């Protein structure tokens, strides 16, 4: 259950990258804007891309789909890799931070974290389940304080009443997973490859948009390697 409320983080690559670097992510990895979801625009995104984060408005259509999806998975089951790092979100408006952590945590074989709050958190959280990871995150003052500092700095729409949410997509063992700390579990979206991952994740993002055709407030960013 959420016990604290934070100022939400904006989907702003500059702010997100400051946040990630504070946590110990090296400067040769960072967040970039994805300006469109068609192949010719996706081809302009720096490669490799190891995570995709979607910011979307929470609507009745989304909530209805979320419940149906959960019920379907509970009845049919799904495979989830033991190599997947997933945590629950226990702090209101921390979804941007949880989404960024999910992206980095599932790519530590590629991203060489510097000593810092995130490396410490991931080492302590490694053997825990998703709920215990969420509880540990609540106690990770360095990460929470970095969120507070950067969310304040990046806040340009503090008066916007729309309830937005961040989720992240990653490729683990050739499967595309949706990681949302407010859902009951990760979502297995089927097979992917390192080369097709960005386009495959973009196709899932398109489905979110199609469920809310009147809505335009969707933003997509990617965690990518910089030159």
The main pleated sheet reads as: 6 strands, antiparallel
Helicity, in percent? 25-40%
The shape is globular
**Order of SSEs:** EHEHEHEHHHHEEEHE
How are the strands of the biggest sheet laid out side by side?
2-8-3-5-6-7
Work out the radius of gyration: 16 Å
Number of helix segments? 8
Termini distance? 41 Å
Topology:
Layout: E1 4-5, H1 13-23, E2 29-34, H2 39-42, E3 49-57, H3 60-76, E4 91-92, H4 95-105, H5 117-125, H6 130-138, H7 141-154, E5 164-172, E6 175-179, E7 187-191, H8 197-211, E8 219-225
Parallel strand pairs: 1-4
Antiparallel strand pairs: 2-8, 3-5, 3-8, 5-6, 6-7
Function: Ubiquitin-protein hydrolase is involved both in the processing of ubiquitin precursors and of ubiquitinated proteins. This enzyme is a thiol protease that recognizes and hydrolyzes a peptide bond at the C-terminal glycine of ubiquitin.
InterPro entries: Papain-like_cys_pep_sf, Peptidase_C12_UCH, Peptidase_C12_UCH_sf
GO cellular component, one term: cytoplasm
Considering the chains and any ligands shown, give keywords for the structure.
single chain; globular; two-stranded parallel ribbon; 20% strand; six-stranded antiparallel beta sheet; alpha+beta; 227 residues
């Amino acid at each position: 259950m959420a016990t604290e409320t934070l100022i939400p983080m904006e989907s702003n690559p500059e702010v997100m990258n400051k946040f990630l670097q504070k946590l110990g992510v090296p400067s040769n990895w960072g967040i970039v804007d994805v300006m469109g979801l068609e192949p010719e625009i996706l081809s302009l995104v720096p490669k490799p891309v190891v995570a995709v984060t979607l910011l979307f408005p929470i609507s009745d259509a989304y909530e209805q789909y979320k419940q149906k999806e959960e019920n379907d998975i509970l009845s049919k089951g799904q495979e989830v890799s033991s190599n997947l790092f997933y945590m629950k979100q226990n702090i209101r408006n921390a979804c941007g931070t949880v989404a960024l952590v999910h992206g980095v945590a599932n790519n530590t074989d590629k991203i060489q974290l510097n000593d810092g709050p995130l490396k410490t958190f991931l080492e302590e959280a490694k053997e825990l389940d998703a709920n215990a990871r969420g509880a540990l995150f609540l106690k990770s003052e360095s990460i929470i304080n970095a969120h507070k500092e950067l969310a304040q700095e990046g806040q340009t729409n503090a008066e916007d009443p729309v309830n937005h949410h961040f989720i992240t997509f990653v490729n683990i063992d050739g499967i595309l997973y949706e990681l949302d700390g407010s859902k009951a579990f990760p979502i297995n979206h089927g097979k992917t490859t390192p080369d097709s991952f960005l386009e495959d994740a973009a196709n899932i993002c398109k489905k979110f948009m199609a469920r809310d055709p009147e809505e335009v407030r969707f933003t997509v960013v990617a965690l990518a390697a910089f030159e």
